[in-house]
Each structure stands twice: as structure tokens, then as C-alpha cells.
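User: Can you predict the 3D structure for this chain?
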Amino acid sequence: MTHSPGPSPIRIRGARQHNLVGVDLDIPRDRLVVITGVSGSGKSSLAFDTLFREGQRRFLETLSSYARQFLGDLRQPEVDSIEGLAPAIAVDQKSVPRGSRSTVGTLTEVTDHLRILYARAGTAYCPACDEPVVASTPEAVTQEILDTHEGEAVQIGAPMIRSRKGHHRAVFEDLRKRGFVRVRVDGTIHRLEEVPELGRYQLHDIEVIVDRLRPKADNLARLRESVQQAIDLGGGDLLLIAGDEVRLLSTLRTCPSCGGEVPPLEPRLFSFNSSVGACPGCSGHGERREASERSVVADRNLTIREGALAVTRSKGGALLFPRADFDFLDKVAEAHGFDLDTAWKDLGTSARRVILRGANANKRFEDKSSWSGKKSSGSVVWQRQWRGVIPALNRAQAKGTRRKMVDRFLSVQPCGDCEGARIAPAPRAVRVGGVRMPELTGLPVERLPAALKALDLTDREKRIGRDVLSEIQRRLTFLLQVGLGYLSLDRAADTLSGGEAQRIRLAAQLGAGLRGVLYVLDEPSIGLHSRDHEKLLEALRGLRDMGNSVVVVEHDEATLRAADWVVDVGPGAGRHGGQIVAQGPPAHVAKADTPTGRLLRGESVSPVRTTRREGNGQFLRLRGARAFNLKGVDLTLALGTLTAITGVSGSGKSTLIQRTLRPALERHLGLEGPDPGEHDSLEGQEVIDDLVVVDASPIGRTPRSNPATYTKVLTGIRDLFASLPEARLRGYSKSHFSFNVEGGRCEACLGAGAKQVELQFLAPVTVPCDECGGRRFQEQLLDVTYKGHSIADVLALPAEDALELFDGHNMIMRPLRLMVEVGLGYLTLGQPSTTISGGEAQRLKLVSHLSKRPRGQVLYLLDEPTTGLHHDDVGRLEGALQRLVDGGHTVVVIEHNLDLVTAADRVLDLGPEGGAAGGEVVAEGTPEEIEACPDSFTGAALRELREQREGKKQRKARARRAKKRAGQDYIEVRGARTHNLTGVDVDLPRGKMTVISGPSGSGKSSLALDTIHAEGRRRFVESLSTYARQFLGLRDRPPFDSIEGLGPSVAVEAAAGGSHPRSTIATSTELHDQLRVLYARAGIFRCPEHGQKLTPRDAAGVTRSILKDCSELSQPKGWLVAPITDQLPDPEKRAESLEARRAQWTAAGFLRLLADGVELRLDGDLDAMIQAEQVDLVVDRVAFGSSSRARIADGVEQASTLAHGRVSVLIKGGERLEYSTRGACTQCGFQLASPMEPRHFSFNTVVGACGDCHGLGARPVCDVNLLVADWDQSVFDGALAEPFPRYLVRGKGFHEHLIKEVARVHRIDLAKPLSKLTRKQRDLVLHGLGAKAEYTVQITKNWKSADFEQQFRAQWTGLCGQIDRWSVRSEDPAWRERLEGVMVEHTCPTCQGERLSPAARAVTVGQKRLPEVLALDVDRALGFVQKLRIPGAREAVLGPIQRELLARLGMLQQVGLGYLTLDRSTGTLSGGEARRVRLSAALGSELVGVLYVLDEPTVGLHPEDVERLVGALHRLRDRGNTLLVVEHDAAVMAAADWIVDMGPGAGEYGGQLVASGPPAKVARSKRGSTGKLLRGEIDLAAEVAALELPLGACDGEQPPPVRLLGAQQFNLQGVDLEVHYGRMLGLLGPSGAGKSTLAVECLVPALRGEDPKGRWEKIENTDGNTRAVLVDATPIGRSPHSVPATYAGVLPGLRELFARTPDARRQGFTQSYFSFNSSRGRCPACDGRGSSLVEMQFLADIWLVCEECEGKRYCPEVLEVRWRGMTIAEVLALSVDKAAEIFEHQPPIHAPLVSLQQVGLGYLRLDQASTTLSGGEAQRLKLASELLKAEKGSRSILILDEPSTGLAASDLVHLARALRRLVLLGNGVVLVEHQTDLLLLCDDLVELGPGGGAKGGRVIATGTPREICDNAASVTGPYLRPSTSHMALSSPNQPLAEGTGGRVKKKAGPKKGTARKAAPGRSKA
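Assistant: Here is the predicted structure, written as C-alpha cells:
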């Protein structure tokens, strides 16, 4: 079939999932596609198990392995290939939670947004007093007192005691001691010494008077101090007394009237699913289960004596609750003027109250009881109180006694505390805009938008609520769009109909606004009325028109006709299906000779019934049903008919039948169930003998349940097999033919036929059982056959074949025939019930009931039985239902399928609408009468159906089909406000590669990552289940107005790779995770010492091995023994043990032992066995032939039990054979303590790591050269490094005595210097070599008053060994640090650096152990995985893992990292290598329609690697994805389709869209720096050439160059390096060549004086004054307290300047007052931050300007101090440029400002938080600091690793000028760089290479940039040439030296490469 023009289709090749038979199919993308076919044909296998599973798997593969292990089944489906697949989202009814705690609001997350709104913007009110409660600050309280009582006499007090009894003498005494004078007691003020005696048992209030004063504005210090003291004493509260006015002021959320506290407003407080927020009365359910008149009164028409009360005893005559007989009740009734013989409905209100609630507590009534037993008899009479029925039930419920019985008499009532609001009193009282949250959640959705708009919000509430309310309105819009406006947010999810639940899920997807997604829907028309169907189709079209592919599994005729493309699967079901029988537009499929084709042609129509049953004359009447939206509905069911209940979705059908009629009948029949919905009465129920509910719930929860067991057909089959002659001969009963019972089932899999293999983060894999091959039964049982079929063969048969096989066996045939008749003939008898769909389960239940022969009148209730049925199957179902009715029963169906409605005898149509507008009977009668009703939507649908089928009405052709949809070609971002973005509007083309560029800090990452990617990922993650989302870290919603056209997003960010020693290439790429699973599930377990396979086997398996090994022997006779040597003690202690063992063995029936092969009788002399090396207990003497198989198997079983799994065979006169049933090594007995799991192969877990090095592969070992400080001293006189002598050889302690004893025993003179001892003596003292096993040490100490003696035995491990022991045991960080000072890392001797435990190291796959595989480089590992072949069932485990390994290794190879070994530590990677490792995962994706966001992917990449990267990006784009690349590299920009230029500056000067369009268009832009770069107008050489320095700025002789010799860290091969002062050296070369290793890992530590430790040989021309500075892009601060003014040293000068002002001196303010980091001067409300953070949970957090200081950071009195009219806050708000101008004559301030200007940071505000600075800005701040030091004459060597990271071309100008200035000031500068323009500015270049990893580490070229260009050996030279046109032949230094006009004259430095001759084997620079 030819596809319409558009994007390339989804190509499926070789789909074999379930019954699909190698399906090849092309599905058009961006279309509405319906997959249909008969039930069981393979529709869901294709749509869900193939398309959806693979689409979601591919996207979730981009997540972490930790998250993926919680996300369910991520197995790859059985398919050869799928191309063009987008991330997939499933929309089905299963994905909607139906718990009682879920509501419409929680499902749509509108309630979650309201919780945020009320928690962050709400005003708390006291629940009791309804007065506002507002938290405040001490400063606000101070200001309020000043505003209201300035100049008035006031008293400030602090509450000490509130309404507490007692004398409180201790309180008064404490206050007196603290210096207070007055207190206020019970409203009266007293002096402390005059307080009267308080009544001990009276409640008292006590407040201490802190101060009496008159507040004045010009002297606030006293008022502030008093307020603060009162608040501290009063716990946040303060008492203000002004004349007769007394007010309680609070800084807490405390009610000023009643003092009640309100908890902090947090989102969880407004959640009824939180213990904090839930109503305590109902635990957040909104209702309570309790006794009521409705639940207690069973029948209002009966009298109490006749059983009107449900608590009446079944035999009558008494009540169960409370226990009372009717004689007693007669007395109660007589006393209150009524009797027990009046119908309940006629009893008065007071009489009912007495019966239900009890009589007056003071009244007693005579009661009597008698008993008669074997031992005693008697009677008692007493006066008893009548408490009533309901209190008795409540007491029983509270006690928990007779719970099941009590529950029958309880009903669900709205909670009286919260009135159904579910939340606690405190959150219920909170208001936003004057409205409480329950008031909003109780409104219908259609009224909510107007209610939200009507909220009267303050400015603060508007600021907080802006994004929250916008998101709520957006979600409500889509609920309205799918026709759910009648629902309220507090509607419980378990009360929703199927159609409502489905549309809620659809609304969420419409609201997500995703594009490029594959949506897969499972029968969305389920539960939808024909009237509602058009809304569903509109929603599906809406998803499609957004640019998504919509695949629907559906049978509905209207949906088929509305589709763009139809795929018909068939031709039959089960094995007869699984093929594509037709595909194409509906008109094309209509031509096919298939059931679907006939349906579309109108040929597949059931004949219309001409007669309707009237019933059997009996009726079941339900009157006055009022549950939920029902409005007093009366239901009359004619028994003996088929009745259909119809109506639009939400009209009340399920409420009427499932929630009212069904529970009422269950209660009548004595069945347990929920309370029926509110109704008046149920009549006619006495004629109903049974109630059968047939729904779509599963028929079983485990794979052991199947159609054969559920329909009881297996019972007849087992009886038949047990009666067969072979079975009787072998003694097999029917139980042997059950796979659930011991005897006949396979014990290896316990009859399951398969074993589940857990794959940790991958989905579990089910593999056939190795023993039975998946057949479930023991091998011998399968010899019994019926007509050639064993019991396993029968279970594998489809029902239709089994029906033919068992022809003549009526008991078996009856259920099988019914299965075929209802369309389930394709199901196999043994198919696990967990794989059966809801529709199939419903029909199986129907089969189960049809196969019975019920007696009496049965009422069948079916809820949408046509679910999942094709039109042809509906006819079969109808026939089955008609048969039930013909049998005299009654069938009620809730149904929308018009064919089944037409077949009904009676129809009850509810409506007219859903929700509150429904719940009424619209029409009632025969289908013809319903059709004639003009007000019935069902009638209209029946009329339309009849007219269509009679040909009177043509089917509507959808006009939309012909209309061309204008696809959205852009991602449209509107109003982006993240960080510094200023409401950015931008359009980004989809399917293209867009580069976002601009100056550092201009907002590029804020737009790309923090807005677009964050929102794309958030929307997709929101579409997943709530369970999955908790592991995926749902991001906050960024602030923006709208983003349209956005698809699922994957980010490749610039985060640094892990440098932890436990992080390796394999762990960071998850290759190790895959390998761990591979080795755990497919590995061959071996003995670590002997390499023997450890394979657990049962007795039968060992028997087979024994017979096989003995088959070649001529006389295979001998002993079968249990080796017990290891169970016996040593020979010297063995005799006593043997006597006890002999008695045990003899009692067990054993007769013989073998001692070293000699047979001994147990009743004889056992002396020979005492000294024997090998002892065996003889289990049997046997000839090892096949005839003895059973005997050998029994012996193996016994031997295994006796010897812990070991079994031995001694051949007479021959060899000894060893076996094991537990997988033990037969040589040493080693066996695995537990089954090996993936975690056992991880060196990051306790169970997997080597026990000695804890998985690090190395451990610190004491280095004798570090421990010994002076070899010419003795150990007692200073040989050892401090502080260890006092711990090891001094202090008269344990170690000193031990070493002296060792010296005495070995005759060593410890007084000699260590150098004078012999080598043997030194080895003993230092390392313990040659020491004895133990030494006995005697310690004697004498004191004046006591003598002390101690003796101990100890080992001597040497002084170094003791250091090692301390290191292992120490937990004190300080002590460990000291120990590490004398220790070095050595390869772990236990694991030899392989990190894993012995057991894990021994396992092999493909003849390689895991450490051997991890030691391979990527190229060789790829070859190893490709060659892996694991036969048998293990292939199911290996397949997906092998494919995953190949894909991940292939991508590492593709990005040029094939040389890296898998065990390489990520901390040793270069920047380029680390970036490419992260890139490889994203670039390996096979998804389409995804938005990939890459943050500076060229960082650390050589120009050659950049070309390779651009090619990979283009391939990713050409596959159908959108790329968004934040980048400055000119080569990437040139390769882009679209460029977005942000700017024009950075920080507050950026955040705007400067230019957008193709590169040619952006190049014409005159505003931004990107346009200049593209036009070639930025010339770094020219900018640097213009640099001038003052004369004399760099006078003096330059120091000699620093020489680093023999660098050999990692891959460096003895490299030498010279660094000259006053010159700039560039290190270049391919990624991974060793540049960063040379500069950062060798040069920096060498300059800082670190010990080489083998990293380099030596460094020359350095001294203690040599200063090394590493300048990188790490943040300069972690909090808003760090600002440029603090980092650059501007603030100290400002503080000093302000502290000298007259205002400051007058108030006594020192410099500390002018620091916002000091508590003296900062604003106490915001702690000097200037703003407060409002956390919005899943929305973006909001920083609100501090209301106290208005963002100025300081307290008011500090801001009163001014310098030249400016406060300190106003100065800090200046830009660097403006401040430099103002403070020109203040050198301490001006100098650092000038340095900031020199590095291009003049635009920064002095108070800008460092957390908002970009990496480039942070780097330049550090450079400014170094420039300032250089200006003062300090010389340094600066090392910069990739300084161009994150810098635009305009930023590079500032960087280059700063670097050149540092050079001119005499500093040495070393650059590790790939940016060619920067490299061209260097004086000297050193190139490492020629490749990366082992192929690098050598110097391949040195010289000036021009010399490198001309060097044929250079890899980088060709990339430098195009840029050399603008540079002179000489280095950039030379033109500067030749110039005049004040430029510094420079001396030519020596050329590199001539300074010294390289040593042999070295690579010289």
C-alpha cells in the first residue's frame, strides 16, 4: 500500500512477539492509525508489546541505570528491527490509579498545584477563631509598635505561663535572679517582690515586663533590644500594653486571640495523603465507616420483632448488638410508649432514637438470664441500662472484636469533622484571595476557571501564583476539551466510570503538549457512549495534529472510519492470527475479505430480533436510588429477560447497578460487600437465589492459574489420565497429573515450567526450566499418553483442538465447547492467567457459569462485556447471554455497544448528560421504544445505526481527512524568564540543528537547558506512572508563558565526569552494569583455587554423571561414600568424637567406613581411622550400571545429606571420583555461600569487593622510606618520623615492650642506628620478616602503693606492619591523615588489583573472567562481545545484554575512544575524553522525534575530533531528531542549520534574543558578537597587539626557566617541559594525548613542592617562592553571600571607607557593620541575602525581594550611613565600570576594579551573586585577582586547562588580553587548549600525540605556531594554517617588542628544543 507524502514511516521488520509470525509492516508517522482484528489475533502484541515497549525502552535507556531498575519491563521485544520509532507513551485504563485516596484533582495534578499555591501564597487563619495568623520578624514588630504608639508610654512583656495551674514560685524566683522587676499576673501588674500567693489549682497567665518606654524614631536601639528580648523569652510572642489596650504580637503563626498555633504552611499540609495534612477524624478519606440508621435498619416495612433491624439474630428473638432478647426490649419499649410489633416506618422519632441511640442513662430495666450445664445451672436477674444498637456497634468496632460481623452493620458516612474535605482544620482555614482550598476543589471543573480568575490576590500572591494559576488553567482547559467539565476535583477516582478515567488520561496527554511522540491507546472507546465518541475522536485528532503518531487498538466502527490508516491483524485468533491481512486507508481495507472489511462494507450485521421477552411475571424493583448523581431513580427489572442499562458517560449506570443494586442484593443474600448506595427500598429480592457478577477482573494472580484450572476442565482431564492403564500400572493417582502438587510435577521449577532470572536494572527474563524443558512434569509421568498426547501436550493445546481430542468425554467437552462458542477457542489450556486480557477473563467467567447447571433464579450482572471484542465476537457473546436467559435466568448488562443493546429485551436509558446533569431515567422500554424517544441520545444512536444499515443514510465522510494539516515546524518559546532571560520569544526549527551562541553569561544555557530541555523532559516524565516518576527526578516547571511543538528531550550536559577512585569507564558508561548481569546470569562459576566448575545438580543429575563416568569401566563396582574428613577434629582429638559419631551412624543404619580406602566395620576397632587422612562413610556397595540407577540415586541423596552436598565414588581397585549436588569443588570443598547475583560482581558493594582493598584495587601500605626519617639514628633516638616514635617505641606501652622482647629473642641491639643493623635484622624490625608466630611479653611495673604484672602473647608484624594495621582499623580522620603521611598506594596483593572477591573473580564467560574483560580496551572488548556464543536457554538471557554491550561499545569506538581500557579511572580522563564518554550514550540512540540538547560538546575536543562530532550530530539530525547545541566553536556554527544569538551582553545586560536564523542571516546582524565572528571581524592578534603597559611595569631580569624532567604519569612517556617567565606556552594535541596530565597532574604539584612519587623525575629552577596558580572555571562561591565585591577584594576597602564616615563614627559602627555577612549590620529578615526563597516544589522556585530591607541586604541603621550621598547598598548596586569612575581616587578600591575591567567584567554589578556567574565569568574573576597581584610585582606560573571553555569570541578577546598582560608583567603562562586562535597567540607550542591513550604521551612537535604549522609530524598543524593569514611570521611577542609609544621592550627568549638534550627514552619539549 502506498503511503501519503510525509515523514518516513515506522518500519517494523520481523516482529515475532507472542503469536506474531515475522510481521513486516510500515506504519505512517504523524497519522491516526487503528490496529484492529478479531480478539486474540495479535493486535496488542503488535501495538503494545512491540511498538510501545520498544519506543519507551529506547527513551528510558537515556536515564540512569538506578532509575531504570524501578521502571518495570524494559526487555527488547522479539523483533528484528524497528526504524523511525519515537518515544512512546501508553494511554490505557490500567494507568489510572483507582484507590480511595486518588481523586480527579490528584490524577490531573491540579490539586498538587493548588497545594503549592496555598502553601506559598496562602494566609493562615485560626481554625477556631477564624482570624488571620501571620508570621512576622522582630523588625516588623518593632516597626508596628513605632507606627501605632510613637511617643506614647508602652510596656513590653513576654508571656511566660499560659493557662497553667500551680504556684509558679520557681518562675518568679528565676525572673528575679535574671534582673526583672515587674510581672503581669492574671491581668494585673505587680512588682516581683509583691506578687500574691497564687492558687495552686487555678489556671494562671503570667507575663514578665521586659521594658517600659516611649518609642521614638530617632532612638530605635532600645526598642529593638526590648522587642528581641521579649520575643526570645516568649518563644516568639510579645505582649504590648499601651494604657488599657493589651495586644499579643507574634513572630510565629499563632492566633492572637486564642493563642492556638498553626503549623508552617508547607505543601504536604494540604495533602490528605500526608499524615500531617490529613483530617484526623477520617485519616484523609473524607468519610468514615460507622453505624447509622441506614446501615442498621434492614427493612423499614417490618417490625422489630419481625426483623426490621439488621442486627437481629438469624433465629430471631434477640439482637446481636447489644446482646438483648425481645423480652427485655419489650420492657424498654413499654417504658417509652411504643411496642415491638409496629412497623419501623410507623415508629415515632423518639422511639427510633431509643432503639438506636439508647435510653436515659439513669434508667434501668430488669433483665434475666439462666443457664443449665453439666456442672451447674442457675439464673440471674439484674437491672440493666439500655445503651442502644449504634453505641454497641461503635464499641465493638473500637475494640476490634468480631470485626467481620460488625462490618456487616456499618455504613460509609461523610466525615463529620472535615465534611468530606479530607484535610485537617489548619489547612482548611488557609485562604488565598479570601477563598479556602476545599471551596475550589468542590467546584465542577467547568466553574473553576472563572472562580480562579475571580480571586482577589495581593501583589505578593500574584507574583507567587502567576505560574501556578497559569498551569492550573491550562490543565482545566483540556479537561473541558474532553467533556469532563461536570466532574469536581474532589471526586474519588474509584467512583469514575471507565470512560471518564480514560478521558482524564487523554486530557493529561493533550495538556502535555508534546510533539513527535508515539501514543499507543488500548480501546479508548471503552465505556464511551456513541454521543461521547465524537469528543474522543476530536481528542485523538488533536494529538495527531500536534505532530504525534497515534496508534489505537480498537474494534469500534466509528473509530475505524475516522482513522487515517487501518491495520487489520488476523485472519483468526491465536495461532490462526498474527498476520497482516489488510492495511491502508479505511476505504482500502473495506475491500478486503476479512471480518473488518465486511464490517466496513456493512455486511457483517447480526439479524434484528423480531420478538422481545416479557419475562416470567416476576420483578425486581429498586426504588429511590440517590447515590452520587442519581436523582431518586426507580429501577424495575423484569426477571427472565436480557436488560441493557445505557446512557452517556457519567450518567449513573455503574452507580445504579454496581454501587446500589449489586451491594443491596449481596446484603440480602448474606454475602460480604460494600454498603449499597442510598436508596429507599429493594423489592422482589426474595425470588433471587444467586447473584453472579461477571467483570473484567483477572481470573488469577499467578501463572499457575490458567483456563484449564479456572473452567475446571483440568479436573476431568486428570481423572481421565489417572484411569489410563499405564497410569494404573505405575500407581499414579489424579494428583500426579497436577503441576501444583508434589509427586508428578517437576521439582526443579515446582511445576512452573520456567524460572525467572532477575537482571537487576533490566527486566527479569523467564527461561524454560533446565530439567523439564518447560513441560512442568517429571519425565516419567509424560510416558502416560492419551491418543499420543501426554498431560503436558494437552495443556499446550488450544481449546478448539482439545475439543476434538476429547470427543466423547462430556465432562471435558462441555467447558471446551463453550470456550469455542464465546470466541476463546484459540486460548491454550495452560496459558497463564496473568497473560489473559480483561475481555478474555470476562468471557472465561461466563464459560465457567454457563458450564454449571444453576438451580433457581440467578441474576447475572455484566459491566461492558463487549470490551475487547471484535464485531464478530460480539455475536458469539450475545448468543451465550441469550442462552442464559432462555435457561430461565436474568441478565443485566451495562453496555454501549449498539448491537448488544439492540439484542436486549428491555433497555433503561439514563441521562440526559453526565455528572450533576445526569442521574435520571430518560427512557425505558424495548430497543424500539428507546429508538423512538426524541430525548434519548441512545435512541438517536440506534436510529442512526438502523438508517445506515438499511442504506437510508450515507455514512459521513470526514471533511478533515481531505484538509491538509499545517504541521508545526517550529518549537515556539514565548516569555521565557529563567534566570536572566527577559521574557524571550524565539522559534527553533524542528528536525534541524540549531546552535545557541552568545557571550558568556548571556543566557544560552538558561534557554536551552534550564527552559526548553527541562520542560521537554518534565512533560514526558509526567506522562509516565506516578510510581515511575518518583525515581526520575521530576524537574521544576521553568518560568515561561508557553512552549509549543516541544518533544521529549534528552540532554548531554557539561557536568564533569566522576573523579572518584571507584568510577571507571565501565561504571560511568554502565558497561560494568551490563557485564555484571551477564556474568551473574550466564557465567560459569568456578572454584577460585582450582578452577573447577561449580554446578549444583540434583540426585538424578549426579547419578547420570556417575553412570556416564563408569560406563567405560570393565568392572564398575565399588563404594558410594560420603566424605566426612572435614567434619572430624584433628587426629589427636578424634578418638572421643568417633565414639559419639559411631553410635549415631549405627543408629541410622550405616555399617562401614573407609579409612584411606580401607574398609572398616563400624562395630569393629577404629584405631586405624584415628590417624587416617581421608575418612568416608560408606553409603552403599554397588555395581555402577544402568540397572542400579534407582539404587545409586538413593545413595547419592543420602551421601549428599551427610557430606553437605559432596558425593564420592571409589572404584574397586581403581580411581576415586568426586561429585557435588550443591556446586562444591570436589578438590577443596569450596562452594558458593549463596547464588551469585549482579551485586556480587560489583567492587562497589560489600559482597562483591575484595575484602582487603574494599574494591579499590590498591591499598595504602607503609613506606619504610617515609617512616624512617634518619637511618643513622636508632629506633629509640630519632630514626622514625614524628609523631610515631611515641606510639611505637616510647611511652612504656604495649608496642615498646613487644619490640624489646623481639629484640631480646633475636639478639638485636636496638641502640644501634638502623643503618648499622644487618639487612636481616632491619627486615625483622621494620617488616616482621623472619618473626616467630608469637612472642610472650612480661610487663612489670612498681609504684609506691602497688606492684603491677602483666603477661600477653602477640604477633610481630614489624613497625611498618603496625602502621598498616592502624590504617585498617582507624576511624578517626585526623589519625588516618597522619598515617597516610607515611603510606603509599600499592596494588592489593590479595586481588592483584582486580578489585573483586575471589568468587566473582573466578567466574568465566567466553573463557574470560570479568577482570580480564575489564582490562581490555574498547576495541578488543567489542571483539570479545561479538564472539560470545552461549548455547541453550541462556541465549534468552544473553541476547539483550549482548546487544546492549555491542551498542555501547560501538558508540565509544565511534567517538574515537577505542583505545581506552574499561577499567580506566574516570579521574584520569582528559576533558575531551570525559566529554566524549558522556556523548557516546546519547549519540547511540535510535530514536526519532527527540529533542537533543547538548551543552558545549566541543569542550576538550581536538579540531579533528570536532569534525567527527559534527558528522555524528548530522547523522542524529538526519534520523529525524531536533538538535539544540549551546556552542561557540566556529566549525559547529558553520555546520548548523540555524543559529540563535543571545546577548547582547552578560548577566543583567544579556538574556535577550539578539538574532535568529540561518548562519548567513545571523552573520548580517550588527548587534551581537556572533555576527562579528561569522563575518570574520574578530581578530585576537590585532586586539592583543594593541595592548600597552606603563613604562617600567616589568623591569628586572627574568628568572631562569622552570624545567620539569621525566614526566611519566599515566600515558606520559618521560616528557620534559620548559616553562619561561614572560612567555606563554601552549600545550596541544589530540584528545587523550596527555596534555592535562602533564600540566595539572605533574607540573602543578611539582611547582608546589609535592613528592614526585614516580610521577616525574625532578623539577629544576624552583624554590619555595615559586608560585603556581591553577585557573579553572569552577564556581567562586556556593551561596548568594559571595559576590564580585568580596572575591575581587573591593568590599574591604568599601567597608573601611564607610567606617571612617562621620555618621558611622557617631553611631560607633566599625567595619564589620558594613558586611552583609556579619550579624551586626545585615538585615535580620533575609540574613543579608536581599531576598528570600519561596520553594515551589515541582514549579520553579521564586526569589522574592526581602520586604524588610527591600533587597538592600543591610539593616536600616546601617543604611543611614552615607558616603558622598550614597549608602553601602547603593554602592554595591553599581556596575564595575561605574564604581571605577566614582572611586578613581581611592586606590584600595580602584585597583581591583581596574583589574576587573581589564578582563572584560566591567558590566558586572558588585553585589551580583556568584551563583549566577557563568564558568567563563568565574574564570576571568580569578584572572583579575592574579592581574592585581602581578601589578604589585608578584610573579607566578599560571596553568589554565581549557580556558576557552564556555567563552564566545568576544569573551576570548578579554581572556587573550588578560593572558598577554600577565605575560608582559613577567609571569609564565601555560595553556592546555584546542582553540586555534588562542594557540596562535602563544609564544611557544608543545604538541603531544600522535594519538590518545597508549598511542599518545610523547612530544611530537615543538616550536612557534608557524613552526608547528610547517611540521609534518604535527597532527594539529593543518588546523592552524587557515588561521595564520592574519599573523606575522614571528611570534606575537616580537611585534610588541618592536613597537614604540610606551610598549614594553622585551628580550627574545631562547627557542624551545635547544635548552638541553633529552635523556634517553624521554620525550622532550
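The CA atoms of residues 1065 and 1462 lie 5 Å apart. The first strand starts at residue 10 and ends at 15.
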